Amino acid sequence: MTRVPVRDDLRALEGYHSPQVDVQVRLNTNESPVEPPAGWRDAFAAELSRVAWHRYPDRAAVELRAAIAAQHGVDPAQVFAANGSNEVLQTILLTFAGPGRTVCTFEPTYQLHAHIARLTGATVSETERAEDFTLDLPAALAAIERDRPAVTFLCSPNNPTGMVEPAANVRAVLDAVAALAVPGLLVVDEAYAQFAAWSALDLLDEETPVVVTRTFSKTWSMAGARLGYVVGPRWFVAELDKVILPYHLDAAKQIAGRLALRHVGEMEERVQLIVRERERIQLAFDALPVDHFPSGANFVLFRPRTLPGRRVWQGLLDRGVLIRDCSSWPRLDDCLRVTIGTPDENDAFLTALQEVLA
Ligand code: PMP
């Protein structure tokens, strides 16, 4: 059988994968190491039993949007939710990128920004970060002036580096985007914002072309639920609502998200635990032959000094610890990324790492 060819512009594209291996300690996909609170589980089960499954869900997800809006002190009309922040990013790019438009990224950063942009048919302009993975601000501003992007991405804390973008950089990039003759949009991906000290949410208003994406997958221990959202100006949210499929958020997910927001205190405690554990791992790294990058997220990027990254990754796997092997990714030679786990999982990781590097 001759097969229908994929779109010409997608031929060279590779998928985005994170191989899952069955191991004791899984620290490779930046999930929360703990389950959601028991109170959430019970309330969720109780509400699920009352869902009118023969009906479509609330298309506008009114209660969920209101709960998210209340959490951030904004208007519900400034909130758009979707199936994971990946679908939020996809909807933004379907709406504002596409053929004939340019999307700017600063690499290395979250691979899906460029990947989804290409899926929409947009041209991607990738600007290199400095050697230490900080933003090269003059290069970033020059790229924006030159390429006049419809969408510019910053990611703070950045994945896979973990580094928080200083507020001054975000403001400078935003000023450059706002000064474009053909208006552009700055998307700040804050999937890991709760683990960091500042958020670009403070920059939002109706007249400023900046939006902030968030997820329930990390802090809220709900990667399995697939729920994310963006906060931005009302006009922006109204445009996304025209592009997204009708009824994209099922009834169960709307309930899951709304109820999760009743457990803010427990979630904040978990964030504190992760941040303490992150600091413990960073201190342990200081005593080992590894270079590591300052992280404001629930993971740390590091580079062994004495062995190739791939060998260290395999050595850890042989000891039942799976982390993310970034060593073959562009710009990330020998780099590995470990997600912060429970104290026991982190102990297992550190013990295995000491053995491998001994
Ligand atoms: N943005 C960044 C920077 C991420 O690291 C991730 C998760 N890998 C996402 C967005 C997507 O998260 P989700 O779709 O689970 O909300």
Tags for this model:
alpha/beta; 358 residues; 5-stranded mixed sheet; Aspartate Aminotransferase, domain 1; 7-stranded mixed sheet
Descriptive overview:
The chain has 358 residues and is α/β, with parallel strands linked by helices. The protein folds into two domains: 10-36 and 265-357, Aspartate Aminotransferase, domain 1, CATH 3.90.1150.10; 54-262, Type I PLP-dependent aspartate aminotransferase-like (Major domain) (Aspartate Aminotransferase, domain 2, 3-Layer(aba) Sandwich), CATH 3.40.640.10. 38% of the residues lie in helices and 16% in strands. It has helices spanning 38-48, 62-72, 84-96, 111-119, 137-147, 167-178, 234-243, 251-260, 264-286, 309-318, 343-357; strands at residues 25-27, 79-82, 102-107, 123-128, 151-155, 185-189, 210-215, 228-231, 290-292, 299-304, 321-325, 336-339. β9 and β10 form a beta hairpin. α1 runs antiparallel to α8, α2 (62-72) runs parallel beside α8 (251-260) and α5 packs parallel to α6 (167-178). It starts with 24 loop residues before the first strand and ends with a helix. Bound molecules: 4'-deoxy-4'-aminopyridoxal-5'-phosphate. 4'-deoxy-4'-aminopyridoxal-5'-phosphate (PMP) is lined by residues 30, 84-86, 110, 155, 159, 189, 191, 215, 217, 223, 228.
